[in-house]
Write a structure and sequence with these properties.
It is a single chain. By secondary structure, the chain is mainly alpha-helical. It has helices at about 1-5, 10-15, 20-35, 40-60, 65-85. Helix content is about 80%, strand content about 0%. It has 2 domains: about 1-35, no CATH class; about 40-85. It contains 5 helices and no strands.
Length: about 90
């Protein structure tokens, strides 16, 4: 949780923790997130959504000329948002 709060990517977190995949780090983040008290969890989710908004801006700028790649990445981003639960 602390590494994600520092702005590290799930891939970087996986490498730091010796996990095989970025998704393993994301799953650990989600487990920890769900174990936090409601008020703290709301703040964590809000900050994570902000990071995802920033990522979306970068994806849209970087992949604007590659519509298939853009749609694939935006779909993955939507799944990340969905994994956080309802707003």
């Amino acid at each position: 949780m602390a590494l994600r709060e520092q702005g590290r990517s799930f891939a970087a977190i996986a490498g730091t923790l010796g996990l095989k995949r970025a998704d393993d780090a994301r799953q650990a983040f989600l487990r920890e997130l769900r174990s936090r008290p409601e008020e703290e969890r709301r703040g964590l989710v809000e900050r994570e959504r902000g990071r995802l908004d920033t990522l979306e801006t970068r994806i849209r700028a970087r992949d604007a000329d590659e519509p298939d790649k853009l749609q694939t990445r935006l779909g993955a981003l939507a799944a990340l948002r969905e994994s956080l639960g309802q707003p």
